[in-house]
Design goal:
Length: about 600
């Protein structure tokens, strides 16, 4: 999906350092001695904080102590706001696909276009209506500016629709009033009311459709609050808002210019001062210019917003709209039902990437490629322990791990709840440690190595990742493990063995071949089990085994056998660990013992 363009591959070639030539000046006055930063004289005088929009005296904020308890009414604007910001707007196939995705995810309000602006948008609305693609419980919304002929054209696009919202918008902020339209407040109000009237009459001509209304004062966050309030009240009154036919008042931060608390103050002030509040759906539409759209939306919900407009993965003009994936999953991680289906986050992402032709960032919350991946050894260790604790708790409670409360360090959400596997949770590079290696062997190969063996293996892996300067994927990890422990053509080989206590045999025979200094020595031993027979055979080869312990486990790994055995063998050269994999216990145990002895003969590091 990643397109090979200059943007995404520019980091492959080493660039020169940029020539930063602004003269460094003094630190600001009063800067503490421990902060030696200097000023590079940026053009601060050209910028200023926006005027406080609400008189300090009028701010009586309650939102800081509120807690979000429910999902808002979601409205996706992917097909309008999001689409109009794309370098290549979606073609009808892509629009249809995204619409189908939004419906499947559970969106009940979907803004589908700006039908008076383009034939594509007009035709798309017609297609949805004529092909009966809109489920009964889904309301489409169409966007229109406050101009008579554009409103009329918008209604034409809706002919035959069952449920629709006509979304009327006009510019109200002083900058727009003066610079863009040269209209005063009175004429802006008149324009909005005339348009509202025309919208009302348009809906009257469609008696068989349930048409509702939405009004957005454009750049609400930059508009004098008293003016925005008066306009909203006037428009809602003109539309005869009632609890049965509520009017949506949408208050966009069209361009995000302040910290999220300021937006929350503005929303709370509107929430408390709007007329007829029970007949109003208070909606927010945060943009992300300062990178805080998600925070703005959340604080606005605390401040009284009922509805949120945004897009999947935050597509939209400039820095985009608020990301509804992040917002909704932030709710889920607090135990609140987001009322949207994210059970296949990667599938959702692939469709959106294809429709918008834009990749989702590797670190995008909840959905990026790397967001459930830990490379750091300490993180991996904690995650491994978290998963182990979860398994234990599930075992104790007699439930599946997926039903236990989620408490895994560094992972705010269970990737499996979003359709992700655990395999990518831990990846190995030079920053990783034995916990990470153990995790990968367990999740990918279903092997649970004893701790000392993990430590040994992690040294071998560290050497490889340091030498290569790159990630050690599961395949390479397996090769390192196999090279270190599973070699069969080493100094010592078991050539034959027979009998097994589990099969009722009371005698086990083991034959070994030991190659040393170009000589081959045969050894043969018998005993009550593999271990004792092996010891005798080894003694015949001149290798005294002082003690040996063997652990066996079910391995369930297709490529390496049913049984895993791990052994710790002490010879005159010290203690060494070994591992053996086979389809039966006898083979696995003997392979592990052979592995231990071979590692001792090779002079491997001992524990
Ligand atoms: Zn917008």
């Amino acid at each position: 999906m990643r397109k090979a363009n200059n943007m995404s591959t520019s980091y492959l070639e080493e660039p020169p350092l940029p020539e930063l030539r602004l003269p460094a000046r003094l630190a600001r006055q009063g800067q503490p001695w421990w902060n030696p930063q200097l000023s590079f004289s940026p053009p601060t005088a050209r910028y200023r904080r926006p005027e406080p929009q609400i008189a300090a005296a009028a701010v009586e904020r309650r939102w800081p102590s509120r807690v979000i308890e429910n999902a808002p009414l979601w409205c996706s604007v992917d097909l309008r706001d999001g689409n109009q910001a794309l370098p290549n707007p979606m073609d009808p196939t892509r629009k249809s696909k995204l619409f189908a995705l939004l419906v499947a995810m559970g969106f009940k309000e979907i803004e589908v276009g700006y039908p008076s602006a383009s034939a594509t948008d007009f035709d798309f609305v017609r297609q949805l209506v004529e092909r009966d693609l809109i489920p009964d419980d889904v309301t489409i919304s169409v966007f229109t500016p406050a101009r008579a002929e554009l409103i009329d054209r918008t209604f034409e696009s809706l002919a035959g629709v069952r449920n629709a919202i006509v979304h009327l918008c006009n510019a109200t902020a002083p900058e727009w009033r003066k610079v863009v339209f040269a209209l005063d407040e009175e004429r802006i109000t008149q324009l909005a009311l005339d348009a509202a009237e025309r919208v009302l009459r348009g809906a009257d001509r469609m008696p068989s459709a349930a048409v509702r209304f939405e009004y957005s004062p454009e750049a609400f966050n930059l508009t004098e609050p008293e003016f925005a309030l008066a306009l909203c009240n006037a428009v809602a009154a003109r539309w005869c808002a009632t609890p049965d036919r509520p009017v949506t008042l949408n208050l966009p931060s069209t361009v995000e210019v302040d910290t999220p608390n300021v937006y929350a103050d503005q929303i709370e002030w509107m929430h408390r001062n709007l007329d007829n509040r029970g007949s109003i759906i208070l909606s927010v539409h945060p943009h992300n210019d300062r990178g805080t759209a998600v925070a703005s939306a959340e604080l606005a919900m605390m401040a009284g917003a009922d509805r949120v407009e945004g897009t999947l993965f935050g597509n939209g003009e400039r820095t985009g709209n608020v990301c509804l994936v992040t917002l909704a999953l932030n709710l889920l991680t607090r135990g609140i039902d987001p009322q949207l289906d994210f059970s296949d986050i990667d599938g959702i992402r692939r469709v959106v990437e294809w429709c918008t032709q834009m990749p989702v960032h590797d670190r995008h919350p909840y959905s990026g490629n790397l967001v459930y991946t830990a490379f750091s050894g300490t993180h991996q260790d904690a995650i491994k322990k978290g998963f182990d604790a979860l398994e234990q708790a599930a075992l104790k409670a007699g439930t599946a791990p997926g039903e236990q409360p989620w408490r895994v360090p560094y992972l705010p959400i269970d990737p499996q709840d979003l359709g992700r596997s655990y395999e990518a949770v831990v990846r190995i590079n030079s920053q990783s440690g034995k916990g990470g290696i153990a995790y990968v062997l367990k999740t990918v190969f279903r092997l649970e190595l004893p701790r000392p063996l993990q430590a040994e293996l992690s040294e071998a892996v560290q050497k490889i990742s340091d030498a290569r300067g790159q990630e050690v994927g599961p395949k390479l990890l397996w090769e390192v493990f196999a090279e270190e422990y599973l070699k069969t053509d080493d100094y010592l080989r078991v050539t034959d063995h027979s009998g097994h206590p589990d099969d009722g045999d009371d005698r086990v025979c083991v034959h070994v071949l030991y190659t040393v200094d170009g000589r081959e020595i045969h050894g043969e031993g018998a005993g009550i089990d593999q271990l004792s027979a092996f010891k005798v055979a080894m003694a015949q080869c001149g290798i005294q085994i002082e003690t040996a312990d063997v652990i066996t486990q079910a391995a369930r790994a297709e490529e390496c056998g049913e049984i895993a055995a791990y052994s710790r063998v002490v010879t005159e050269r010290g203690a060494t660990w070994g591992a053996g994999l086979a389809d039966n216990i006898g083979d696995a145990v003997l392979r592990a013992l052979t592995s231990s002895v071979n590692r001792a003969l090779r002079g491997s590091r001992t524990f």
